[in-house]
Amino acid sequence: MSKNLNISILMDFYGQLLTDKQYDAMDLYYNQDLSLAEIAEDSGISRQGVHDAIKRGEKQLEELEEKLGLAARFAAVSRQVERIKTLVEEIEEENTSPKLQDKIAELKRLSDEFENVI
């Protein structure tokens, strides 16, 4: 996964724990795709100040993920839900029993509900 995408994902999980200055600079840089110079001009601080805020924010996000692992757990659970859905579809194609079809429908409903929660 590219660093930009990884940082954007970490911002979704931990962004509110950054300072406002760090969050704003990182949001503009990673999510809005502005250059350091553009952010500096908009923020009224130097390009180096923006760079430092972003680097400190990146470090803090990576440390939080290392300690808490929320993004990694989310990705693992999402992969498991997708695997469950695939297996349910395969079972559905192979079996025509009405009772089994009811159970398959329930599994689909539950996996959809779970997916909407995560």
In short:
With 118 residues, the protein is an all-alpha fold. The protein has helices at 3-14, 20-31, 36-43, 47-68, 70-94, 98-117.
Largest beta-sheet details: none
Give the N-terminus to C-terminus distance in angstroms. Answer: 20 Å
Indicate the CATH architecture of the largest domain.
Orthogonal Bundle
Approximate shape: elongated
Output the radius of gyration. 21 Å
Give the number of DSSP strands. Answer: 0
Structural key phrases:
118 residues, mainly alpha, Arc Repressor Mutant, subunit A, elongated
Structural features, described:
The model has no long low-confidence stretch (mean pLDDT 90). The chain is mainly α and 118 residues long. Helix content is 84%, strand content 0%. Helix 1 runs antiparallel to helix 2 (20-31), helix 1 (3-14) packs across helix 4 (47-68) and helix 3 packs across helix 4. The chain has two domains: 6-68, Winged helix-like DNA-binding domain superfamily/Winged helix DNA-binding domain (Arc Repressor Mutant, subunit A, Orthogonal Bundle); 72-117. It is elongated and about 70 Å long. It contains six helices and no strands. The longest helix has 25 residues, at 70-94. It has helices spanning 3-14, 20-31, 36-43, 47-68, 70-94, 98-117.
